[in-house]
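seq as requested:
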Amino acid sequence: MSGEIILVVEDETKIADLIRRGLIYEGYQAQVANDGPGALTMARDTPPELVILDVMLPGLDGLEVCRRLRAGSDVPILMLTARDAVRDRVAGLDAGADDYLVKPFDFDELLARVRALLRRRGARVEGGATEVLRFGDLSLNSATRQATRNGRLLDLTAKEYDLLELFMRHPRQVLTRDVIYDQLWGYDFGGESNIIEVYVRYLRSKLEANGEPRLIQTIRGVGYALREE
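struct tokens:
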């Protein structure tokens, strides 16, 4: 039994109850909020280890809840959406979500994603002493989870940070899509997913915001590498 607190934010009672009962059966502590304001209150009063967050909510939609949670916490956020359009998935990631799952979903897949997100969070918490990684004018502090480029602080989401850390721990090495999937998500998204491309695009926009040269290079047909052009 793990006992981690998971906040389920879902206004459809049947879905919320299904998720809650399934999580409790797996040994988690599940709390349920049925609207946006209630979710923020619960997260403030009893900080969870993970949030499962529906996009369509009364009072305050899931994207805004995600933004507000992310502003003060790096808690992993798994967004649920009934819409499978790329722009909708990108909107969730842009709001600060770490992962997304399209309704209707298989509960075993939801559990796999929950376990992967908690595993990543646990590894960060137990990481130990401060370590500073450097590559050119780019630096990353493992204790503060902050990254800077040429002295400029980068405003990164939790998953953007994880991706950048992966690149900085393997400088100049080509990382395949499969390796990135395995290291950051811990399961197979499937060949049609473009989540890596989305996060690489986000990272590049922040790394190159002041016109700096590109560091994350595309290796066509293979993956990506952190190296100078």
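The chain is about 40% helix and 20% strand.
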